[in-house]
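> Could you send the Bifunctional ligase/repressor BirA prediction when you get a chance?

Sure thing. Input:
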Amino acid sequence: MTTRIELLRLLADGGFHSGTDMGRALGVTRAAVCKGVKGLAAAGVEIHRVTGRGYRLATQLAPLDERVIRKRLAAAGFEWRGRLEILEEVDSTNRYLLERARDAASGHVCLAEAQPCGRGRRGRNWVTTPYHNLMLSIAWRFQSGPGMVAGLALAAGVALTRALEEYGVDGARLKWPNDVLWNGRKLAGLLADVEGEAAGPCLVVLGVGVNGYIAERDGARIDQPWVDLQTITGASVDRNRLAALVIGQLARTCEKFGAHGFAPFQAEWERRHLYAGRPVRLMQGETVHRGTVAGIDDSGALLLRDAQGRTRAFYSGDISLRPAA
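Output:
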């Protein structure tokens, strides 16, 4: 555990702590404490310093904690036996698990406090504020081949919206293929990576990013309307609780998907789709397709009905879905 994480744990109670007291508690010098505080501030954690009183977090913030997450999973009926890793920083939680694919068993979960190279769909960066958001990946092994991934990614979207509802977020909606929006603004997203032979079996890594709190300087780098949980709920985000909800829902979904495929999730996904039955534009490179969303097929492809009444299926890839202009 790094000094920065240990400092966050001490400061998580919301009270003032002197540099001397924190150094004594951690067994480091005051200079090391000062360096750690500066590192946290540089990463986007707002810390107040008052002469004679010490340091205090500007807003409530607790680091991710494996023990707390496992305890919450157990309370929800999951005696989590899978590996659960929390990293202070990693380029990508998905990539981290894929690089360990040989040893990754179903239920291997990786969470990160900071992810400077997080990936979104279509090669975009996922912009985050360190120590404030939920970034996790879960590995799962399936007997079927990579062709099932599109349906699994949509099923995972259902799992994510269920978890957000359990957390207390009303009105979260899915946007094909793997975004979660709230009032038309992006709140969360998913990314599925796969390794395996065409006929199976395969390993799928599902990556999830949820905006807990986005600092103003980071929000300025996001090229689309966005929202975070702190704005929606008006309260600091309990990321350990949220992580347990998301992990639990994803695990249930992977188990059910492995046994029954996408069929049990299709109707619910369509019910949660923001653009269900609505006119849209679908951008595919330089080509723009216009029509009305007519649902999804049993593989997760988007069905678009054009003005002539013809229905065409579109598959996830370099495609962007927007409301009709």
